[in-house]
Write a structure and sequence with these properties.
By secondary structure, this protein is α/β, with parallel strands linked by helices. It has nine helices and 14 strands. About 30% of the residues lie in helices and about 25% in strands. The strands form two sheets. Strands 5-4-3-2-1-12-13-14 form an eight-stranded mixed β-sheet. α1 runs parallel beside α9 (about 265-270) and α3 (about 110-120) packs across α4 (about 130-140). The longest helix has 13 residues, at about 85-95. The radius of gyration is 18 Å and the shape is globular.
Length: about 280
């Protein structure tokens, strides 16, 4: 019986070190699908931010940490942040002088501080500004001033140099929204947290997919590296942490594969016999 494989993107498929997905991961995905398994990208990114992944050899997408779900080339779930709630969240973050990006269908839109963080994420440290802007645009990341008025927003990423503001943000969110820490890099002074609907996460997105195919979670395999992957990993029948993943992810996973740049996806697929050893 085929398995349902759910792969995070950032830190699991995509490495900012090479600004790409390792070839071994792409080969493993292709072979797994040829062997009768279904593969889904399960990411915190919005629809706009996966534009470079739309031609991947996969079966669907769980986007914005579960707020938008595609299977069989159609949308089966869609739950954006309401306009009044979005306005309130923006006012709160701007009042705290924090950087953020609003992640929607047509783009990810950063306020002035957030956009600078995005420019640095998608380019190496020595890149010129024009190159940084080009790379950000390739990933559909733009200044907030270019946001489409009617573009639905599904998730907010909040940026910080040290994460010291995050506890206060959590206090101010109340009960309807949840803050999840996803990147903590003291050396680069790069911290990222996600604000999402408390009732929606990667696990609820996976549940929508499995219901669509009349499958059970015992047949689901989740692979991830950061804290927003924890609901996914706890829900799937088999959970695998990347070798480069956070300790909190490794602590709850059933297994740990190698680092993303050390053929982590391919090695996991081989170990669980999703593909053969010939690759």
């Amino acid at each position: 019986m085929g398995k349902y494989i759910f792969l995070d993107i950032d830190g699991t498929l995509y490495s900012p070190v090479i600004n790409a997905t390792p070839d071994s991961a792409l080969q493993a995905i292709h072979q797994a699908r040829a062997n009768g398994h279904k593969v889904f990208l399960c990411t915190g990114r919005s629809l706009a931010e996966i534009v470079t992944y739309l031609d991947y050899d996969i079966d669907g997408y769980i986007l914005a940490a579960g707020a938008k779900v595609y299977a069989d080339k159609k949308c089966i779930y869609d739950e954006p942040i309401s306009k009044p709630a979005l306005a309130s969240l923006k006012d709160m973050l701007n009042g705290m002088n924090l950087g953020y990006t609003l992640e929607g269908n047509a783009g990810a839109y950063g306020n002035p501080i957030g956009y600078e963080f995005q420019l640095n994420y998608f380019s190496h440290m020595h890149a010129g500004r024009d190159e940084k802007i080009e790379n950000a645009m390739l990933n559909c990341s733009y200044p907030e001033s270019e946001a489409h008025e009617d573009d639905a927003i599904y998730k907010i990423c909040v940026y910080s140099h040290d994460g010291s503001e995050y506890p206060l943000v959590e206090e101010k969110l109340g009960k309807e929204y949840l803050m999840t820490y996803v990147v903590s890099d003291p050396e680069a002074h790069f911290y990222v947290a996600e604000i999402t609907n408390v009732a929606i996460n990667k696990a609820t997105g996976i549940q929508k997919v499995l219901e669509h195919y009349h499958a059970c979670k015992d047949d689901a395999i989740g692979i991830g590296d950061s804290d927003n992957d924890i609901p996914m990993l706890k829900y799937c029948g088999t959970s695998i942490a990347m070798g480069n993943g956070s300790q909190s992810v490794k602590d709850i996973a059933d297994d740990i594969t190698t680092d993303i740049l050390d053929d982590g996806i391919m090695n996991a697929f081989k170990k669980y016999q999703l593909i053969g050893d010939e690759l």
